[in-house]
Amino acid sequence: MRAEKKQEIDMGVLSSSVSITGYKIDGKLEDPVMETMEKKLKQHTIMEIDEEVSEKAIGWTSLENPYEPDFDGASFCIGTYMVFALRIDQKSIPSKVLKKYYTLEMSKLLSESGRKYLNKTEKRMVKDRVYSILLRRYPATPKVYDLIWNYEEGFLWFFSNQKSANEELETLFSKTFQLSMIRLFPYTIADLDTGLSDSEREQVNKLSPTRFSE
Amino acid sequence: MLDVSVSYNRYKFLGHEFLTWLWFLMENNRPFLQKEVPELTSLEIGNRIVLENRLNEGVEIITIKGDEAGFEEAMLSLRKGAVVTELHLLFEAADQQWQFNLKGESLNVSNLKTPKTQTAQSHEDLEGAVLEKIYLFEKVIGLVNILYKHFVKIRISDEWKQGVVPEIKKWIHA
Fold first, then answer.
1. How confident is the model over B91-100, as a mean pLDDT?
2. Are residues A124 and A78 in the same domain?
């Protein structure tokens, strides 16, 4: 009998070490919320670009199967949390590979035409064509960043502190859900999440650094 | 509310002062920490502390790291006018330990290691495993939120200038 080896599910949220950026989400989705959310996630699901000329793709994906996104039947809902992921696929063609195929293509064209050189526009066109061919051949490198959204309480944890990933999240979230998303950091926490009165918030605005040294 | 990118830079000093205050509390006022977070049994600086001193000729960054590192250099930097910009913290509650880095300017948590949890090996395990992790993350995020909110209240009160700052100065220069 062959023993079945179980494999651990490996994902950002369940990793042994995580980084978290907090957000406050304001506003509500149209009722019924689950259906609206499913529809919006499907509209902005990551598109595969492996055999396309595209260089980059950004979209939502499932937490459990980031390479086969599936948002059917509120599968993104765990307890009272919405749990899914941002996926960024990016193709990167090494400059030396581009140079090699560009040089080969140039030699071929020159020998076929019997000319000694190509003008600037022709060179640009060759380079663009070679680049497009290589883009089709190169698979994109996927990066997956999990998120947990407590819809009822209006907060979201994004499992990355990387500036670029956070910026992509903010853009796609706003495009998908049309809700206000505010990154939480010292000022925004004090202003939005500390329960201060208007006059106390005004006092925060007037604060300046303290010197602890004498 | 001010513009987000402007306020991030203009008020990052609040995060730095918060970490400096937190270090002061850990050294001098543990009962306060336990009162604010009743389940807390321990909160210690781990193996990394980063400070920043803005001088006329530029910015000096001081990083102290290593399990056996002492914090004399960090204290010396505080005396020279530095503020704490990043702390690695060890937090214990109910016989469990969390470790994480807390960055002052963003209050982002990084390298968060929670107490060990069961691994998910099937779709059926996944839901429980994720909920268990969320519960454990909430402990750390909750700790930071409670302490930061308390800091903000003190920071805008007269108590900051009259009571807290003189105490911190006394500690730094002791």
1. 94
2. no
Q: Which of A91-105, A136-150, A158-172, B65-79 has the weakest average pLDDT?
A: B65-79
Give the C-alpha separation, B127 to A94, whole Å: 41
Partner-chain contact A200 B156, CB within 8 Å:
yes
A73: containing domain: 21-89+143-205
Domain boundaries defined on chain B: 4-172
Using alpha carbons only, how large is chain A's radius of gyration in Å?
A: 24
Q: Does A60 lie in the same domain as A28? A: yes
Over residues B112-152, the pLDDT tens digits come to 999 988 777 777 788 899 999 999 999 999 999 999 999 99
Residue A186, domain member (yes or no): yes
Q: Model-level pTM?
A: 0.90
Residue A171: inside a domain = yes
Residues with Cβ within 8 Å of residue A20, at least 6 apart in sequence: A157, A158, A159, A161, B108, B109, B110, B112, B137, B141
Q: What distance in Å separates residue B69's CA from the closest CA in chain A?
A: 23
Task: Find chain A residues with C-beta within 8 A of B53's C-beta.
Answer: none
Closest residue, chain A, to B171 (C-alpha): A212
* Residue in B37, B160, B85 with CA at minimum distance from that of residue A204: B160
A151: confidence class by pLDDT, cuts 50, 70, 90? very high
List the single best residue of B134, B135, B148, B157 to mutate versus A (max A Cβ within 10 A).
B134
pLDDT of residue B118: 77
Sign, Cα dihedral of B68, B70, B73, B79: positive
CB contact under 8 A, A207 and B83: no
Instruction: Give me the interface pTM, i.e. the ipTM.
Output: 0.92
